[in-house]
Design goal:
five-stranded mixed sheet; four-stranded antiparallel sheet; 3% helix; 367 residues; mainly beta
Length: 367
């Protein structure tokens, strides 16, 4: 299970009031959300051995994949589940592809330009692997983190063949399958576990890194020597980094808050609070067209924030409909579909009991 037991002796920081004027909540949410589909390992609920560490929607919005403790990459048709008349399904009924992996999975990414065929994964054994989903065979593999757990991997959108991974060995490494698989093309030693790596999805040459040293860093991949920005404001491990746009990054920490940062000025723009996060990965995703931020919670709830306000605009419990509640359950992974109209959105969440929930959002008409 992905958690941060090493953080337990770190004190929580005092609340920061520097952005208090930006944290007021609108009187009414502009969005309506509903549960559109639920996928469970069984109709009676999942088990802790099914904990999902990651959920990823592909760029077309047609497919999504999940991975975690069960050592399986499961791929589903998002469109089919949204159009199904059946709300509650089990994995066997809903599956599009399933690949058994040799280790527990911590990260999954669709490879850009592969038309949804190639999936990159990172695992607890310290290995990064690319799989061909149709043949269910690995097509690329590297193990350069000294066998230490790889928490995160991603592909560059500036050069879509290049990937990066961050691990417990305290390094972020960039690699290129076109070159010698035993060597990375760039390496940054950060001195403490690297929990998240994300390239800018807007095509720029930037990569954001979240670290257990309580900081997040942004590097220009064309010259990875010193970071172009350092975000120092979380009181505990930075577990996720996500680009909101070309100029802005959102970070998540195990101090129980999200923070929005300006890259150029390295300034804190806003802090988001409401969810519970002290020791586990709970997911972070941004719906860029709608300006919505989604995350999980150790309270076993999904939280949605509007980027303009520091308090959540929607909260939903993750207990399985008609199923058995998982004790000490938490929402462990979140991903928005980036496809769709500006007044509609789709959010996919995964839980510690292996349950996947799909939420549909629609902007309320102006009155």
């Amino acid at each position: 299970m992905k958690n941060f037991s090493s953080d337990q002796n770190h004190p929580n920081p005092p609340p920061d009031d520097s952005d208090q004027q930006n944290r007021s909540t609108p009187t009414k949410s502009e969005w309506d959300f509903r549960v559109s589909a639920v996928v469970s390992s069984s109709v009676t609920g999942g088990h802790i051995s099914d904990t999902l560490g990651v959920v990823e929607v592909d760029s077309s919005g047609n497919l999504f994949a999940s991975g975690g403790i069960a050592r399986k990459i499961r791929v589903y048709s998002l469109n089919s589940l949204l159009s199904s008349e059946v709300t509650l399904l089990d994995h066997a009924t809903a599956l599009h592809y399933c690949i058994c992996t040799p280790a527990k999975l911590s990260s999954l990414k669709w490879k850009p330009g592969s038309a949804g065929r190639i999936m990159g994964s990172a695992d607890y054994d310290g290995v990064v692997t690319e799989y061909d989903l149709e043949t269910k065979m690995p097509v690329y593999e590297r193990d350069e983190h000294n066998g230490r757990r790889v928490w995160s991997m991603d592909y560059s959108h500036w050069d879509p063949v290049v990937g990066a991974s961050g691990a417990d060995d305290g390094t972020m490494q960039m690699w290129d399958p076109r070159h010698d698989s035993e060597k990375c093309v760039a390496k940054v030693a950060l001195g403490s576990p690297v929990c998240c790596v994300e390239f800018s999805p807007f095509g720029g040459a930037l990569v954001a890194v979240g670290c257990a040293d309580r900081k997040a860093y942004v590097y220009d991949v064309r010259k990875i020597v010193d970071p172009i920005a350092v975000f120092d404001g979380h009181g505990r491990t930075v577990s996720y980094t996500r680009f909101l746009d070309d100029h802005t990054v959102v970070t998540s920490g195990t101090d129980g808050c999200l923070k929005m940062w300006d890259i150029a000025n390295q300034n804190l723009i806003r802090t988001y609070r409401g969810h519970t996060n002290q020791r586990r990965f709970v997911g972070l995703s941004i719906s860029r067209n709608q300006g919505l931020i989604g995350c999980g919670s150790e309270s076993n709830q999904v939280f949605v924030y509007d980027k303009r306000w520091g308090e959540p605009i929607w909260v939903h419990g993750f207990e399985p409909e008609g199923g058995t509640r998982c004790e000490d359950g938490f929402v462990s992974s979140i991903c928005w579909s980036q496809e769709g109209e500006a007044d509609q959105c789709t959010l996919v969440g995964g839980g510690s009991d292996g349950v996947v929930k799909i939420f549909s959002g629609k902007r309320k008409p102006l009155t």
